[in-house]
Design brief:
With about 290 residues, the protein is mostly helical. The chain is built from 13 helices and two strands, in the order H-H-H-E-E-H-H-H-H-H-H-H-H-H-H. The chain has helices spanning about 1-15, 30-35, 40-50, 70-75, 80-90, 100-105, 120-130, 145-160, 180-190, 200-230, 235-250, 255-265, 270-290; strands spanning about 55-60, 60-65.
Length: about 290
């Protein structure tokens, strides 16, 4: 919708400081001419910003950028903003997070969060750093490399379970420069360094370790999203797919035998169990490969 695009463009100019509090915003006539729209469309864009508290009408001045609400300033902090955004992402997924939505949840004007962060991308990084900082490690590590790496994996897994969106932030090839994520990295690297490998191998092994945890955790939010979209639990979905799965098994004997046995004995796919199985297999492989 054109009026929404016009409102977004003005909102961006205000957020970047191009239009300061108290400054006049372009008139309805100017907006209509600049964007090639009807006067009514331009007026609708200004009305939307007015409803959000971004602009206000001033006698003899026209429409101006609204200044900060003093009461709002006292109640809103960066930490509160980040924690509210985390709560939204935990409940609804990262895709549901928007600056406007966070402001609405906080009960503040739409532009209020921009006094603490430049935009959604910066907010997401602050959220991730706060989430990774919720759990740490003993000041004095104990146990061998395997025990410490197991603790590191389980700690990360617990954080991904608490905040499923964390695993969706980016590929392993583009690590996030987060202070609290570095704490987990240092713990794992310290344990892996006892294998006596060179720097390149140490980096590769850390990527392999973190990939196992993150790779499993990716499915947490995907399942959450699938449940919200379809309304079907994992068991419901499997029941719904049963005829197609049975037809597929007919042409694949090993799969068919496995499916028949699981049908008889019962089976629940539990990500916690698979995570632990993968951790043991990874650590067993490292111990065998490096004689530790």
């Amino acid at each position: 919708m054109k009026y929404v695009a016009i409102a977004d463009e003005l909102r961006g100019r205000i957020a970047r400081g191009e239009l300061a509090p108290g400054a006049r915003v372009p008139s309805t006539r100017r907006l209509a001419a600049d964007h090639g729209v009807a006067l009514a469309t331009a007026a609708k864009a200004l009305a939307l910003l007015s409803q959000e508290g971004v602009v206000r009408a001033e006698p003899r001045s026209g429409t101006v950028v609204a200044g900060p609400d003093r009461r709002e300033q006292r109640g809103l902090t960066r930490d509160r903003l980040v924690r509210t955004a985390i709560a939204i992402a935990d409940a609804e997924g990262l895709g549901a997070l928007s600056m406007r939505g966070v402001a609405a949840r906080l009960g503040v004007a739409a532009m209020a969060p921009y006094r603490y962060v430049r935009g959604r991308d910066e907010l997401v990084l602050l959220m991730a750093d706060a989430a990774f900082g919720e759990r740490g490690y003993p000041a004095r590590p104990s146990g061998d490399w395997r025990a410490r790496l197991t603790l590191g994996g389980r700690t990360l897994w617990s954080l991904f379970k608490r905040h499923p969106w964390l695993a969706q932030l980016g590929p392993i090839t583009r690590p996030l420069p987060l202070r609290n994520l570095a704490v987990h990295g240092e713990w794992a690297l310290s344990a892996l360094s006892e294998l006596g490998v060179d720097a390149a191998t140490l980096c590769d092994l850390h990527v392999l370790f973190f990939s196992h945890v993150q790779g499993m955790a990716i499915h947490l939010e995907r399942e959450q999203s699938a449940l919200a979209t379809s309304g079907l639990t994992g068991d419901d979905w499997m029941d719904h797919q049963a005829p197609a799965v049975a037809a597929m098994a007919a042409g694949h004997p090993t799969f068919g035998r496995m499916l028949a046995e699981l049908t008889e004995t019962g089976y629940d796919l539990v990500l916690d169990d698979i995570f632990e199985l993968g951790m043991r297999a990874l650590l067993d492989g490292l111990a065998r490969r490096f004689g530790r």
